UniProtKB/TrEMBL annotation:
InterPro entries for this protein: Tetraspanin/Peripherin, Tetraspanin_CS
Keywords tagged on the record: Membrane, Transmembrane, Transmembrane helix
Parts of the chain that traverse the membrane: 12-37, 49-76, 83-108, 128-146
Protein name: Tetraspanin
GO cellular component: plasma membrane
Keyword Acetylation: no
Organism whose genome encodes this protein: Diatraea saccharalis
Plastid in keyword set: no
Main location: membrane
Membrane topology: Multi-pass membrane protein
């Protein structure tokens, strides 16, 4: 009796958790596509190569969605194949996280110096007012504040 109850709880907790993560993956995909569409307006103000960021967000969203889909469908249908794929994907992600933390921890000094150099170079090329002007311009473009007509209350 108790074993069936535990299996039922684990099954639906795994299902709902992966359902939420699959929705989050879809949200990442949608956000990446929306940013990619709006990117042309931002590139008019800020001349830089930032096309890779929304594409990376879309790819990350697809990966999250596929892994969560394996877990969600595997849990609800009790499919051994889908749950095995889910486990393999989660094991690969865990190993990748451990590797990334190890690499970052070992190269923390050089990483900090590199980032400090990037920041110093960014502010050496522009004076403070120019950086502020670009930031405000990007903010206005992203939120379409200057394009939105204001409606007066009657």
């Amino acid at each position: 009796m108790c074993c069936n109850c535990v299996e039922f709880i684990v099954k639906y907790v795994l299902f709902f958790a992966n359902f939420v993560f699959s929705l989050a993956g879809l949200a990442l995909i949608g956000t990446g596509i929306a940013v990619l569409v709006q990117l042309s307006e931002i590139l008019e103000v800020v001349p830089s190569a930032i096309n890779g960021i929304p594409i990376a967000v879309i790819v990350l969203g697809v990966i999250v969605f596929v892994i969560a889909f394996f877990g969600c469908c595997g849990a609800i249908r009790e499919s051994r194949c889908l749950l095995t794929m889910y486990f393999v994907c989660m094991a690969i992600l865990a190993a990748g996280k451990i590797y990334l933390v190890t690499v970052i921890f070992n190269g923390l000094q050089t990483l900090q110096k590199t980032v400090e150099g990037w920041v110093e170079n960014a502010f050496d090329k522009r004076e403070a007012f120019g950086v502020l002007e670009v930031a405000v311009s990007v903010h206005f473009i992203i939120f379409n504040i200057y394009q939105r007509p204001r409606r007066r209350k009657k």
